[in-house]
Amino acid sequence: MTTPAPHTQLSKERELRGRLENAMTELAPIEAQSQALVKKSTGRSNMAVWGGMAFMSLQFGFFARLTWWEYSWDIMEPVTYFATYATSMAMFAYFVITRQVSVSMWCVSHPPTHSTGLCLPSGSGKELFAQLSPNGRQTEV
Q: What pTM was computed for the model?
């Protein structure tokens, strides 16, 4: 196998570096937009997790008030049983549908779901990103 002439190799290297710089220049604004969408979707996911925690805290406080101030435990025991059972059924239904066992799995998979919903309606940025990204990655190697 013959080695290419040095000037041919240098010109090919310059061409590839130029293509890489062009691809990176075109990708920069899309990467920035992508990072902003990921940040926004992560914030929404955190709000959902903390919202669930707030709901559980309010439910506990509501049942505590009903148990110790308004009614007695004899009246509230079936209510808390059915509320707990309904919550367990809802969590199990979520598991059956998504197969996500823990909150950490949900946090990992949920932000991408949010970010796809936050993309521009035209989708042109997503298409351009998909078009340029493999080209830029291939040029880097």
A: 0.50
Task: Identify the band that residue 132 occupies on the pLDDT scale cut at 50, 70 and 90.
Answer: low
Kindly report, residue by residue over 42-79, the tens digit of the pLDDT. 888 888 888 888 988 998 899 889 888 888 888 888 98
Contacts of 45 (CB under 8 A, 6+ apart): 106, 107, 110, 111, 114
Domain membership of residue 1 (yes or no) is no
Evaluate if residue 29 carries a pLDDT over 60.
Answer: yes
Number of structural domains found in the chain: 1
Classify 54 as helix, strand or coil. helix
Two tokens at 3?
């080695």
User: Is residue 9, in this structure, part of any structural domain at all?
Assistant: no
Helix/strand/coil percentages in the chain, nearest 5: 90, 0, 10
Q: Is residue 126 part of a domain?
A: yes
Q: Determine the structural domain holding residue 80 and report its residue range.
A: 29-140
Angle at alpha carbon of residue 114, lines to 122 and 25, rounded to 5°: 55
- The answer as to whether 5 is a domain residue is no
